Amino acid sequence: MMFTAMVALWLPPASAAPPRVLHDALVRAGPEAVVHRFESGSSARYFSVVRVGGAKNWPTRETFVFARRASPTHVGGNEHEWVSFWRDCDATLRGTEKQASGCFASSQNLTNVRSPRETNWAHNTALLWDAGAVYALGGRDNPTHHRVRDGAYSRTYETQSRLDAAARASAPSTRRLPPPEDLRGTPALRGAHAGCVEKRPQFAPNCEFDGRFSLARLGSTYHLFARANLVGEKGARGHFGGRFVQSAASTTSPRGPFGAFSVVDVPGFRAPFARALNVYFAAVTSNPADPDNSLVALFPLRDEGLAILGLGVSCDGKRFSRLAVLANTTDAGDFRTADHPADGVLVDDTSQTALFFVHRNVPSIGNVTGPSALTRIPITLSSLRAFTRSQLPAGCPRRP
Ligand SMILES: *[C@@H]1O[C@H](CO)[C@@H](O)[C@H](O)[C@H]1NC(C)=O
Ligand SMILES: *[C@@H]1O[C@H](CO)[C@@H](O)[C@H](O)[C@H]1NC(C)=O
Ligand SMILES: *[C@@H]1O[C@H](CO)[C@@H](O)[C@H](O)[C@H]1NC(C)=O
Question: Bias category Low complexity: which stretches (predicted)?
Fold first, then answer.
């Protein structure tokens, strides 16, 4: 009798909700380590780690790190932004032999602030290496704003020399030029795109695309991830909160055309959405432990009692698994997390680890004052593979 009663005491009630996140699902192959500390006042944020090369038109293998920069003299940095990159990095983001002083020794600009359109493009740019080219997509849509903001444009760098030429053209010495050809054509995406969700009344029903984009390939499909603002209610400091992620797919190219958006599904973080639930963006990439079948996404997520960089997997870019905690973060105010994941993952073949990168202390986010630094978190490929197999949503192809 006594024994039965004790067992009953230990059983969780049948109605208990499953945990929203899995805390210890990923096995680290080593501690989180600082890769680079940025100089005080550096505006670099929205990092993308992009491994290129091995293609006929672009044979040299190397790793690029892209980041958004902003003029520190502009509050919030929203109006004078550009994309810059570091190159010659190895998988751990140390320098290669060619650049012994390290991969962060000197950066080049990919864009300049010479036109509002180019500045607008740099605000939320996603970068993807695919089949011999670097694809980039960026731009907000807000036609009523005093500056040109009329949608997202796609750019393609098919060779290393095209990227070099873009860097040369954006040097400060270059005289004022008209916006590049590709920003004068047809946008890849407008705010009125099918399915796009924007509840903030100053933009609704059109999406502004204020958060950063991410592009990822799975099989022959290109998935685009964008900011969805799910809550229109005004708080004491304005219209924000309820930031979330929506995705659209293209079976043609990373440039689109993209099908309709739908808000992604992350178990534990579903409608009805509250202002306090914020997924600032998704950084999505091919899953290095399961490249043919799934994507891996990193979500900077803040909810009541929770601030994490969550890792989830998906086989369709729409339904994600429950999240594992890649790293903990903190609430920096205004429902933003103080730290962001970098977009992209590198693989260290020798140690069989997936290397994820985290931007600690994102400058000009909320009340962040700590030193801005990029860190590396090594996760064993076997652990990521086990997580993927056990957590991929129902209906995904499963391998033995
Ligand atoms: C990049 O652009 C910024 C803004 O125009 C400029 O201040 C900076 O000097 C440029 N850097 C390089 C390496 O061209
Ligand atoms: C994050 O914090 C939780 C709760 O304190 C802890 O259990 C977990 O181990 C932490 N995870 C990581 C990856 O630091
Ligand atoms: C930053 O803001 C958050 C949310 O308002 C608050 O919980 C936290 O204590 C603040 N941190 C600092 C260092 O002021």
Answer: 162-176
